[in-house]
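Sanity check. The docking grid for glyceraldehyde-3-phosphate depends on where the pocket ends up, so I'm generating a full predicted complex first rather than guessing from homology. Inputs follow.
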Amino acid sequence: MTTIGSPNHMNIHSLRNALTQLEKEGSGLGHFNVADLVLLKAVIAAATDTGFPVLVGASEGEREFFGTRQLAAVVKSLREETGLPVFLNADHTHSLQKAVEAAHAGFDSVGVDFSAFPFEQNVAHTKEVVQAIKAVNPAIVAEGEIGDIGTGSEIKETAQGDFKKLTTPEEARQFVDATGIDVLAPAVGNMHGMLKSMVQGKAKKHLDLERIAQIKQAAGIFLTLHGGSGTDDEHFRKAVAAGINIIHINTELRVAWRRSLGESLVRDPNEVVPYKVLLPVVDSVKQVVTSRLRLFHGELDAVGSVA
Ligand code: G3H
Ligand code: ZN
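Predicted complex below; grid placement will be based on this.
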Protein backbone atom coordinates (compact mmCIF):
# COMPACT_ATOMS: atom_id res chain seq x y z
CA MET A 1 0.00 0.00 0.00
CA THR A 2 1.38 3.42 -0.90
CA THR A 3 0.17 6.06 1.51
CA ILE A 4 -2.70 8.01 0.02
CA GLY A 5 -1.99 11.69 -0.28
CA SER A 6 1.72 11.42 0.50
CA PRO A 7 4.05 13.08 -2.00
CA ASN A 8 5.72 10.73 -4.44
CA HIS A 9 9.17 9.82 -3.17
CA MET A 10 10.09 7.47 -5.97
CA ASN A 11 11.94 10.25 -7.80
CA ILE A 12 14.50 10.49 -4.99
CA HIS A 13 17.81 9.01 -6.08
CA SER A 14 20.31 10.20 -3.52
CA LEU A 15 20.39 10.68 0.23
CA ARG A 16 21.17 14.38 -0.21
CA ASN A 17 18.17 14.68 -2.50
CA ALA A 18 15.98 12.88 0.08
CA LEU A 19 17.06 15.24 2.83
CA THR A 20 16.36 18.32 0.72
CA GLN A 21 12.95 17.09 -0.41
CA LEU A 22 11.81 15.95 3.05
CA GLU A 23 12.94 19.24 4.61
CA LYS A 24 10.73 21.09 2.11
CA GLU A 25 7.83 18.80 3.01
CA GLY A 26 8.37 19.33 6.74
CA SER A 27 9.14 15.63 7.28
CA GLY A 28 11.94 13.73 9.00
CA LEU A 29 13.90 10.88 7.44
CA GLY A 30 13.65 7.73 9.57
CA HIS A 31 16.99 6.03 10.30
CA PHE A 32 16.61 2.46 11.51
CA ASN A 33 19.49 0.30 12.72
CA VAL A 34 19.83 -3.28 11.54
CA ALA A 35 22.07 -6.09 12.73
CA ASP A 36 20.58 -8.92 10.72
CA LEU A 37 18.35 -9.75 7.77
CA VAL A 38 15.22 -9.94 9.94
CA LEU A 39 15.56 -6.29 10.94
CA LEU A 40 16.51 -5.24 7.40
CA LYS A 41 13.51 -7.06 5.90
CA ALA A 42 11.25 -5.30 8.43
CA VAL A 43 12.59 -1.85 7.51
CA ILE A 44 12.22 -2.52 3.78
CA ALA A 45 8.69 -3.88 4.27
CA ALA A 46 7.70 -0.71 6.14
CA ALA A 47 9.24 1.46 3.41
CA THR A 48 7.38 -0.56 0.77
CA ASP A 49 4.03 -0.19 2.56
CA THR A 50 4.34 3.51 3.30
CA GLY A 51 6.29 4.67 0.24
CA PHE A 52 8.52 6.77 2.51
CA PRO A 53 12.31 6.93 2.08
CA VAL A 54 14.37 5.19 4.77
CA LEU A 55 17.95 5.35 5.94
CA VAL A 56 19.20 1.95 7.05
CA GLY A 57 21.90 2.28 9.70
CA ALA A 58 24.52 -0.06 11.08
CA SER A 59 26.98 0.77 13.84
CA GLU A 60 30.47 -0.75 13.93
CA GLY A 61 29.16 -3.69 16.01
CA GLU A 62 26.17 -4.22 13.73
CA ARG A 63 28.44 -4.05 10.65
CA GLU A 64 30.82 -6.52 12.22
CA PHE A 65 27.96 -9.00 12.68
CA PHE A 66 26.30 -8.50 9.28
CA GLY A 67 29.47 -7.87 7.29
CA THR A 68 30.13 -4.35 6.01
CA ARG A 69 30.37 -5.26 2.32
CA GLN A 70 27.62 -7.86 2.63
CA LEU A 71 25.17 -5.32 4.12
CA ALA A 72 25.99 -2.81 1.37
CA ALA A 73 25.43 -5.49 -1.27
CA VAL A 74 22.06 -6.58 0.19
CA VAL A 75 20.80 -2.99 0.52
CA LYS A 76 21.91 -2.24 -3.06
CA SER A 77 20.09 -5.32 -4.28
CA LEU A 78 16.91 -4.40 -2.37
CA ARG A 79 17.07 -0.84 -3.68
CA GLU A 80 17.38 -2.09 -7.26
CA GLU A 81 14.62 -4.65 -6.88
CA THR A 82 12.08 -2.41 -5.14
CA GLY A 83 13.03 0.94 -6.71
CA LEU A 84 12.54 2.42 -3.22
CA PRO A 85 14.60 5.34 -1.89
CA VAL A 86 16.57 3.22 0.60
CA PHE A 87 19.93 4.55 1.76
CA LEU A 88 22.69 3.19 3.99
CA ASN A 89 24.58 4.85 6.84
CA ALA A 90 27.73 3.67 8.65
CA ASP A 91 26.47 4.73 12.06
CA HIS A 92 28.77 5.76 14.95
CA THR A 93 32.07 5.19 13.19
CA HIS A 94 34.99 5.73 15.53
CA SER A 95 38.03 5.31 13.27
CA LEU A 96 39.44 6.45 9.95
CA GLN A 97 39.88 2.84 8.85
CA LYS A 98 36.23 1.84 9.49
CA ALA A 99 34.97 5.01 7.80
CA VAL A 100 37.05 4.43 4.66
CA GLU A 101 35.99 0.78 4.63
CA ALA A 102 32.32 1.82 4.61
CA ALA A 103 32.93 4.43 1.91
CA HIS A 104 34.61 1.80 -0.30
CA ALA A 105 31.74 -0.63 0.37
CA GLY A 106 29.30 1.91 -1.11
CA PHE A 107 27.58 3.35 1.97
CA ASP A 108 25.66 6.56 1.21
CA SER A 109 26.78 8.21 4.42
CA VAL A 110 29.15 7.83 7.34
CA GLY A 111 28.37 8.95 10.86
CA VAL A 112 31.76 10.05 12.07
CA ASP A 113 31.73 9.87 15.87
CA PHE A 114 34.56 11.29 17.92
CA SER A 115 32.16 12.94 20.34
CA ALA A 116 33.83 11.26 23.33
CA PHE A 117 36.98 13.35 22.67
CA PRO A 118 37.50 16.93 23.86
CA PHE A 119 36.11 19.44 21.33
CA GLU A 120 39.43 20.33 19.59
CA GLN A 121 40.36 16.67 19.12
CA ASN A 122 36.85 15.88 17.91
CA VAL A 123 37.25 18.65 15.30
CA ALA A 124 40.67 17.39 14.15
CA HIS A 125 39.68 13.70 13.88
CA THR A 126 36.34 14.45 12.22
CA LYS A 127 37.94 16.76 9.64
CA GLU A 128 40.54 14.13 8.75
CA VAL A 129 37.90 11.41 8.28
CA VAL A 130 35.57 13.67 6.28
CA GLN A 131 38.40 14.45 3.84
CA ALA A 132 39.30 10.76 3.54
CA ILE A 133 35.78 9.50 2.80
CA LYS A 134 35.09 12.31 0.34
CA ALA A 135 38.30 11.34 -1.47
CA VAL A 136 36.77 7.88 -1.91
CA ASN A 137 33.33 9.20 -2.90
CA PRO A 138 32.76 12.98 -3.22
CA ALA A 139 28.96 12.43 -3.03
CA ILE A 140 29.08 10.67 0.32
CA VAL A 141 27.21 12.38 3.15
CA ALA A 142 29.39 13.00 6.21
CA GLU A 143 27.89 13.39 9.67
CA GLY A 144 29.76 14.68 12.70
CA GLU A 145 28.73 14.54 16.38
CA ILE A 146 29.18 16.84 19.34
CA GLY A 147 27.99 16.62 22.92
CA ASP A 148 27.22 13.68 25.19
CA ILE A 149 24.19 11.48 24.60
CA GLY A 150 25.48 8.30 26.22
CA THR A 151 26.20 5.02 24.50
CA GLY A 152 24.36 1.80 23.72
CA SER A 153 20.93 1.10 22.26
CA GLU A 154 20.01 -0.98 25.28
CA ILE A 155 17.53 -1.13 28.14
CA LYS A 156 18.93 0.75 31.14
CA GLU A 157 17.94 0.66 34.80
CA THR A 158 18.66 4.35 35.35
CA ALA A 159 19.96 7.27 33.29
CA GLN A 160 23.75 6.97 32.76
CA GLY A 161 25.79 9.83 34.17
CA ASP A 162 24.46 13.28 33.62
CA PHE A 163 23.63 14.50 30.18
CA LYS A 164 24.30 18.15 30.88
CA LYS A 165 26.85 18.45 28.07
CA LEU A 166 24.32 19.77 25.62
CA THR A 167 25.52 21.30 22.36
CA THR A 168 25.61 25.08 22.17
CA PRO A 169 24.80 26.96 18.93
CA GLU A 170 28.29 28.51 18.96
CA GLU A 171 29.99 25.09 19.23
CA ALA A 172 27.77 23.82 16.43
CA ARG A 173 28.76 26.69 14.13
CA GLN A 174 32.49 26.26 14.89
CA PHE A 175 32.32 22.50 14.41
CA VAL A 176 30.54 22.73 11.06
CA ASP A 177 32.91 25.43 9.75
CA ALA A 178 36.03 23.55 10.84
CA THR A 179 35.15 20.00 9.74
CA GLY A 180 33.29 20.24 6.42
CA ILE A 181 30.51 17.89 7.58
CA ASP A 182 27.16 17.81 5.76
CA VAL A 183 25.07 16.75 8.76
CA LEU A 184 25.43 17.56 12.44
CA ALA A 185 24.29 15.35 15.32
CA PRO A 186 23.93 17.53 18.44
CA ALA A 187 23.10 16.74 22.06
CA VAL A 188 19.71 18.33 22.68
CA GLY A 189 18.26 16.30 25.54
CA ASN A 190 18.33 13.06 23.57
CA MET A 191 20.04 9.90 24.85
CA HIS A 192 20.87 6.47 23.50
CA GLY A 193 18.83 3.53 24.74
CA MET A 194 15.69 3.32 26.84
CA LEU A 195 15.05 3.28 30.57
CA LYS A 196 12.90 0.39 31.78
CA SER A 197 10.13 2.89 32.49
CA MET A 198 10.25 3.95 28.81
CA VAL A 199 9.96 0.36 27.60
CA GLN A 200 6.90 0.06 29.85
CA GLY A 201 5.50 3.26 28.31
CA LYS A 202 5.52 5.06 31.69
CA ALA A 203 8.14 7.68 30.76
CA LYS A 204 9.22 9.52 27.61
CA LYS A 205 12.31 11.41 26.50
CA HIS A 206 11.86 15.15 26.11
CA LEU A 207 13.97 17.37 23.86
CA ASP A 208 15.26 20.92 24.17
CA LEU A 209 13.28 22.23 21.21
CA GLU A 210 14.45 25.81 21.57
CA ARG A 211 18.06 24.66 21.45
CA ILE A 212 17.39 22.64 18.29
CA ALA A 213 16.06 25.75 16.54
CA GLN A 214 19.07 27.81 17.68
CA ILE A 215 21.54 25.12 16.57
CA LYS A 216 19.81 24.82 13.20
CA GLN A 217 20.19 28.52 12.64
CA ALA A 218 23.82 28.59 13.75
CA ALA A 219 24.89 25.42 11.92
CA GLY A 220 22.91 25.98 8.72
CA ILE A 221 23.13 22.30 7.68
CA PHE A 222 21.07 19.15 8.06
CA LEU A 223 20.64 17.88 11.64
CA THR A 224 20.36 14.32 13.00
CA LEU A 225 18.62 13.33 16.20
CA HIS A 226 20.26 10.26 17.73
CA GLY A 227 18.74 8.25 20.56
CA GLY A 228 15.18 8.54 19.27
CA SER A 229 13.67 5.49 21.01
CA GLY A 230 11.15 6.38 23.71
CA THR A 231 10.86 10.03 22.69
CA ASP A 232 7.56 11.78 23.19
CA ASP A 233 5.64 11.84 19.87
CA GLU A 234 4.85 15.53 20.11
CA HIS A 235 8.52 16.32 20.73
CA PHE A 236 9.47 14.36 17.61
CA ARG A 237 7.11 16.44 15.52
CA LYS A 238 8.26 19.71 17.06
CA ALA A 239 11.92 18.69 16.66
CA VAL A 240 11.38 18.18 12.92
CA ALA A 241 9.66 21.56 12.74
CA ALA A 242 12.64 23.10 14.59
CA GLY A 243 15.17 21.70 12.12
CA ILE A 244 15.84 17.99 12.70
CA ASN A 245 16.17 16.12 9.37
CA ILE A 246 17.11 12.54 10.36
CA ILE A 247 15.79 10.58 13.35
CA HIS A 248 17.60 7.47 14.63
CA ILE A 249 15.60 4.61 16.13
CA ASN A 250 17.27 1.45 17.34
CA THR A 251 16.28 0.24 20.84
CA GLU A 252 12.55 0.21 19.99
CA LEU A 253 13.32 -2.17 17.11
CA ARG A 254 15.51 -4.35 19.32
CA VAL A 255 12.78 -4.56 21.97
CA ALA A 256 10.20 -5.62 19.36
CA TRP A 257 12.72 -8.11 17.89
CA ARG A 258 13.48 -9.68 21.26
CA ARG A 259 9.86 -9.84 22.46
CA SER A 260 8.44 -11.30 19.28
CA LEU A 261 11.28 -13.80 18.91
CA GLY A 262 10.64 -15.01 22.47
CA GLU A 263 6.90 -15.30 21.81
CA SER A 264 7.45 -17.06 18.50
CA LEU A 265 9.75 -19.67 20.07
CA VAL A 266 7.37 -20.28 22.98
CA ARG A 267 4.31 -20.53 20.69
CA ASP A 268 5.54 -23.77 19.15
CA PRO A 269 8.47 -25.47 20.92
CA ASN A 270 8.70 -28.03 18.08
CA GLU A 271 8.98 -25.51 15.28
CA VAL A 272 12.44 -25.72 13.74
CA VAL A 273 11.87 -24.00 10.40
CA PRO A 274 13.77 -20.71 10.72
CA TYR A 275 11.56 -18.64 8.41
CA LYS A 276 8.42 -19.81 10.23
CA VAL A 277 9.89 -18.74 13.57
CA LEU A 278 11.24 -15.48 12.16
CA LEU A 279 8.37 -14.21 9.98
CA PRO A 280 6.33 -12.94 12.98
CA VAL A 281 9.49 -11.17 14.18
CA VAL A 282 9.80 -9.34 10.86
CA ASP A 283 6.17 -8.34 11.17
CA SER A 284 6.51 -7.00 14.74
CA VAL A 285 9.56 -4.89 13.89
CA LYS A 286 7.87 -3.70 10.71
CA GLN A 287 4.93 -2.37 12.76
CA VAL A 288 7.29 -0.27 14.89
CA VAL A 289 9.10 1.11 11.83
CA THR A 290 5.82 1.86 10.05
CA SER A 291 4.38 3.74 12.98
CA ARG A 292 7.58 5.80 13.42
CA LEU A 293 7.70 6.60 9.69
CA ARG A 294 4.10 7.75 9.70
CA LEU A 295 4.76 9.97 12.70
CA PHE A 296 7.89 11.52 11.11
CA HIS A 297 5.79 12.30 8.04
CA GLY A 298 2.98 13.90 10.03
CA GLU A 299 0.49 11.08 9.51
CA LEU A 300 -0.17 10.12 13.13
CA ASP A 301 -1.47 12.24 15.94
CA ALA A 302 0.33 12.47 19.29
CA VAL A 303 -1.37 9.41 20.76
CA GLY A 304 -0.43 7.22 17.83
CA SER A 305 -3.73 6.96 16.02
CA VAL A 306 -4.11 7.76 12.35
CA ALA A 307 -4.64 11.49 11.82
O1 G3H B 1 22.50 5.59 16.28
C1 G3H B 1 21.49 4.99 16.72
C2 G3H B 1 20.60 5.67 17.59
O2 G3H B 1 20.97 6.92 17.94
C3 G3H B 1 19.50 4.96 18.21
O3 G3H B 1 19.20 5.37 19.53
O4 G3H B 1 18.54 3.21 20.51
O5 G3H B 1 17.85 5.34 21.57
O6 G3H B 1 16.86 4.64 19.42
P1 G3H B 1 18.04 4.58 20.31
ZN1 ZN C 1 23.18 7.07 17.75
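Relevant for the grid: The CA atoms of residues 37 and 74 lie 9 Å apart.
Also worth noting: The beta strands are 29-33, 54-58, 86-93, 109-112, 141-145, 155-156, 183-185, 194-195, 222-225, 244-249.
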